[in-house]
Design brief:
It contains 1 helix and 7 strands. With 83 residues, it is mostly beta strands. It has a single domain, classed as Beta-Lactamase, CATH 3.30.450. The strands form 2 sheets. The chain has a 5-stranded antiparallel sheet with strand order 2-1-7-6-5, covered by helices on one side. A two-stranded antiparallel ribbon has the order 3-4. A hairpin with a 2-residue loop joins strand 3 and strand 4. It is globular and about 35 Å long. The relative contact order is 0.27.
Length: 83
């Protein structure tokens, strides 16, 4: 993948990313409600177009858990590239 970006979320909020928004990393921004519901509530992988800091990307999001049963230590990873 070229021109790709990667994000790690804590729950639905970006905590580290190489996505740039207004000249800065988009840390603190949130995933869309559709993505968060699919990945965090349903536990499914989300693939498809998504708005990432105001830009439409082809994306894939996957759930992860750092310690079983601790919701504050779960989130998702995001991999995407511009259309």
């Amino acid at each position: 993948m070229t021109d790709g970006t990667v994000t790690i979320f804590l729950e639905d909020t970006r905590v580290t990313t190489n996505v740039i928004n207004n000249g800065e990393r988009a840390v603190g921004t949130q995933a869309s409600q559709e993505v968060a519901h699919t990945v965090l509530e349903e536990g499914s992988v989300y693939t498809g177009p998504a708005d990432v800091a105001g830009v439409t990307y082809q994306t894939a999001y996957q759930h992860y858990t750092m310690q079983k049963g601790k919701p504050s230590e779960c989130g998702m990873s995001e991999h995407h590239r511009k259309y």
